[in-house]
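Figure 6 in text form: structure in, sequence out.
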């Protein structure tokens, strides 16, 4: 059974200056960085997420959805997503509840964050960064519409979303703690699924 860990990456010895501890299910895999503990395409609903047990068995997340994200419990969590300059435009994911934030709350917030429609200035900016970006954005849009659990026509009417701007880094890698001047937040790492090591 995994234990609660500081959630720092690379793994460090337990330190007194780590303000909180993270659930062991959501940190980057400390034993194999190429094999995330959770298999989830963040552009798809959290119900599609699977987790890797210590015995390398892939199971759904149902049994841990109600687990708190942190120890001690936190009612507000800020998550910074590593998506380049777009992070500056979009700001962080903020999960703010009256009750302790659970894993389900965290995953739902991340999912909805990437479902926000892109504005015209954002699309224009992305396309001006490189001549191939419009094609990549459009390809991602059509692929998302085809693979959506909703009707493709309805999904297409929603237009471009933040999820379409992620390129090939759409899979969960893990979250880890960062802190400065007594304030802490989580960093979200995403990975290209081609770089994942298949579970045997």
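Output sequence:
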């Amino acid at each position: 059974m995994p234990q609660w860990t500081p959630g720092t990456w690379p793994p460090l010895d337990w330190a007194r200056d780590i303000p909180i501890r993270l659930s062991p299910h959501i940190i980057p895999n400390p034993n194999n960085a190429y094999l995330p503990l959770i298999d989830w395409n963040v552009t798809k609903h959290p119900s599609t997420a699977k987790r890797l047990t210590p015995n390398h068995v892939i199971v759904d997340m149902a049994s841990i959805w109600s687990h708190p994200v942190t120890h001690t419990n936190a009612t507000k969590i800020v998550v910074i997503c590593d998506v380049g300059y777009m992070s500056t435009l979009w700001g962080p994911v903020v999960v703010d509840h009256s009750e302790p934030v659970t894993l389900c709350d965290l995953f739902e917030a991340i999912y909805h964050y990437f479902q926000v429609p892109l504005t015209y200035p954002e699309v224009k900016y992305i396309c001006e960064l490189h001549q191939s970006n419009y094609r990549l954005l459009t390809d991602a849009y059509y692929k998302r519409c085809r693979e959506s659990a909703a009707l493709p026509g309805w999904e297409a009417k929603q237009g471009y979303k933040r999820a379409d701007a992620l390129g090939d880094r759409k899979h969960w890698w893990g979250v880890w703690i960062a802190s400065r001047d007594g304030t802490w937040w989580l960093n979200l790492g995403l990975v290209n699924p081609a770089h994942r090591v298949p579970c045997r």
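Caption detail: The mean pLDDT is 86.
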